[in-house]
């Protein structure tokens, strides 16, 4: 419309060590793909630079081809190109074998491997004349991009660019993250509340003025109950009750649970301190006391914790065989069926930078019951207590939350949730329909990132 100037399109290059679905370990991989897709759909030009690991899932790469090769730091680096989810990706393959080790992380020289990659990526940008507007790097692994750029490359061949750095997890590589904060034009983390929670951290505090929280979104193509091969009946908010009933039956049948006439609480998580292990255990027993069923899907990287849950599973499977199932594996198809077949998804995290499971739950019409921390606070608005806070942000209330990181906290959330299922079924069903209609995709966060990119260029 007259008077509104069209924003010029930007060229953004992500330098990252994960990308879903070809090289994914956690949320970082999802963000790189989801954000890039959304920004590209808004008519900007996006490229991704990734190491060419020997463990990349090549079946998800289209038109893989040799692009060029260059010498750097005494080794030849072969560059490949190929599309992933419609995105242009360059894969760097140094012939010194740094990425031929069968895994993404977990090598004793990870710092050297990713330091080398960060440097090689900037070198590739110069050698190929790409000259982007924004170089976006992520977590400690590609933190070196920020200072290598400011100390060298911005004076030698990449004159146009500004650097944006995103912190997905502050727990690893704090020294590198601190340095990247100093050398980046803008720094983000993955939710506004988490950004406030960590703002006093001595790594973050000195750079507060360029630090922003932007929520993650979920990939609405992958998580779509209308088009999901892992659930029995496709559904939208229009037939959510029927769709979820069929999914619940299929889930119960698959796991050998009986009694469809009970509320089902689902938990899908890494079993680590961050995720509130003691609260999860308490919630399982509390749900059973409240006449509910529980399905947990999760794995513990720490073998002691895994073993602890194996014992709990054995105990529950003998005392409450019809009512509780703990699946201590990683199983993506099963996770889809749990999101669809549960009445509630419980997320009692001690801290949570953003959290994706509560967003996916809502997409499938499952009511989130969460601890009010980090990104969980920014996305789940309590039906009893957060009406004003939700209205101020233009969303409707959508779940149950609790503050305390203790048994009383969990009980407060769960009791209200389960009572609503028993006593106010019609209201409960309308809530389920309403949350399915909320938009937790990348549409909105991508606009926030574009605004940040523009601000970085001023
Ligand atoms: P984090 O990245 O801290 O683990 P998020 O909530 O951001 O937590 O993302 C977790 C993602 O991993 C979600 O998509 C969830 O569905 C998935 N997930 C976690 N555990 C499992 C599991 N055992 N099997 C399948 N998917 C899982």
From TrEMBL:
It comes from the Eukaryota. GO terms for molecular function: alpha-1,4-glucan glucosyltransferase (ADP-glucose donor) activity; alpha-1,4-glucan glucosyltransferase (UDP-glucose donor) activity; starch binding. Its main location: plastid. It is found in: Plastid, Amyloplast; Plastid, Chloroplast. Keywords: Amyloplast, Chloroplast, Coiled coil, Glycosyltransferase, Plastid, Starch biosynthesis, Transferase, Transit peptide. Transmembrane segments: none annotated. One of its GO terms (cellular component) is amyloplast. The keyword Transmembrane helix does not apply. Belongs to the glycosyltransferase 1 family. Bacterial/plant glycogen synthase subfamily. This is starch synthase.
């Amino acid at each position: 419309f007259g008077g509104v100037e069209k924003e010029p399109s930007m060229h953004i290059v992500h330098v990252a060590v994960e990308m879903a679905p070809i090289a994914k370990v956690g949320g970082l991989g999802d963000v790189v793909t989801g954000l890039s897709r959304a920004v590209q759909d808004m008519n900007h030009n996006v490229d991704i630079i990734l190491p060419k690991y020997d463990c990349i899932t090549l079946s998800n790469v289209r038109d893989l081809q040799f692009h060029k090769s260059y010498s750097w730091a005494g080794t030849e680096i072969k560059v490949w190109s190929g599309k992933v989810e419609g995105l242009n990706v360059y894969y760097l393959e140094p012939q010194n074998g740094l990425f031929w080790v069968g895994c993404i992380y977990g090598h004793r020289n990870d710092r050297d491997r990713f330091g080398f990659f960060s440097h090689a990526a900037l070198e590739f940008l110069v050698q190929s004349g790409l000259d982007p507007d924004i170089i976006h790097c992520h977590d400690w692994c590609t933190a070196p991009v920020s200072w290598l750029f400011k100390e060298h490359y911005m004076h030698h061949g990449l004159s146009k660019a500004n650097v944006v750095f995103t912190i997905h997890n502050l727990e690893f590589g704090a020294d590198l993250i601190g340095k990247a904060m100093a050398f980046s034009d803008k720094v983000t983390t993955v939710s506004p509340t988490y950004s406030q929670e960590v703002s006093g951290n001595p790594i973050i505090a000195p750079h507060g003025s360029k630090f922003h929280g932007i929520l993650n979104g979920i990939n609405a193509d992958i998580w779509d109950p209308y088009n999901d091969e892992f659930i029995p009946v496709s559904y939208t908010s229009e037939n959510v009750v029927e769709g979820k009933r069929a999914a619940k039956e299929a889930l119960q049948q698959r796991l050998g649970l009986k009694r469809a006439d009970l509320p089902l609480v689902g938990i899908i998580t890494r079993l680590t301190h961050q995720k509130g292990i003691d609260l999860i255990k308490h919630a399982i027993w509390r749900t059973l006391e409240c006449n509910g069923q529980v399905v947990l899907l999760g794995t513990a990287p720490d073998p002691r914790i895994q073993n602890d849950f194996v014992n709990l599973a054995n105990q529950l499977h003998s005392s409450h065989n019809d009512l509780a199932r703990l699946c201590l594996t990683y199983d993506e198809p099963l996770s889809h069926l749990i999101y669809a077949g549960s009445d509630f998804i419980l997320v009692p995290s001690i801290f949570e930078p953003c959290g994706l499971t509560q967003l996916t739950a809502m997409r499938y019409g499952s009511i989130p019951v969460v601890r009010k921390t980090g990104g969980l606070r920014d996305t789940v608005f309590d039906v009893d207590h957060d009406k004003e806070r939700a209205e101020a942000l233009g969303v409707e209330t959508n779940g149950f939350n609790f503050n305390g990181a203790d048994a009383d906290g969990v009980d407060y959330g769960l009791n209200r949730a389960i009572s609503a299922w028993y006593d106010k079924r019609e209201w409960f069903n309308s809530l389920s329909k309403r949350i399915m209609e909320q938009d937790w995709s990348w549409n909105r966060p991508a606009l926030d990132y574009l605004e940040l990119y523009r601000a970085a260029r001023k």
